[in-house]
């Protein structure tokens, strides 16, 4: 039973679920295969993706039972209203945990490269705010009704009661404002963190831009706020379709933004793979230096580039200590002026 607003919910959910799945999959490939440094932030983001998958499934199944529809279209189908309410309730639980865990992953990543004590305190404050408003909304959502299952069984003769809807709306507003503040913090602060690292300006601008995508997730939270009042609308499923859409957008964008920050090494990996054939074509009078070929006498290997600490180098360039020996530098003999080679350029891109 998909039509009208149900179709809009399904479309938005499917698009942002696919986007987050692709970026998390690429993140896992980069961190496990290229960088070989799968850390706590990566495991946390994988957990967030699993939770987001549960959220999306609840939304999609709920739409098949009437989410986004008017009651006159749902009531003729026995059991649909109950199942749609159950999917809504489960989806909100998954949504809250997904967003909190995704923010935790991003904050853990930033703490790994943060040097300034002030920046560290700000990140911990953002973490505390996220946990506080998340737990508040989480427990109010779960225990909105007494007994808990009365939320989706209220249309039956089963006895029970729910808290005043105005209280839940106030809690939802509190959560949304807190989430927006935390998102803006972890979206803007990286610009100042990256600028203190020893990287060239082009790299800093690229990384800061990617990290700033986190601000888009906060925009989704803000867009969602005006629709919170629809919780008390008699046509609950029909009126709250915007909440369903923007909740999925927020979760998907948060995971995508957090994963995009780890994909720079993938660009290097793909570029090096595409230029591998060219690297085997030696120019006359040139000597390729790598860990796989003997080094001519009198020539020394280039030292590792310094771009901040080891953690920041691995995070943004994707080159671990034992991978530098695979870098190929070509030395041209003769009287021509020395030019910067392609492989040297790749160290700083």
TrEMBL record:
Transmembrane annotation, as ranges: 12-30, 42-68, 88-108, 120-143, 167-195, 207-227
Q: Which superkingdom does the taxonomy of this entry point to?
A: Eukaryota
What Gene Ontology cellular-component terms does the record carry? Answer: membrane
List compositional bias (Basic and acidic residues) regions by residue number. Answer: 303-314
A Pfam family of the record is Fung_rhodopsin
Protein name, UniProt field? Rhodopsin domain-containing protein
Question: What species is given as this protein's source?
Answer: Aspergillus felis
Q: Does the keyword Protease apply?
A: no
Q: What family name appears in the similarity comment?
A: Belongs to the SAT4 family.
Q: What is its main location?
A: membrane
Q: How does it sit in the membrane?
A: Multi-pass membrane protein
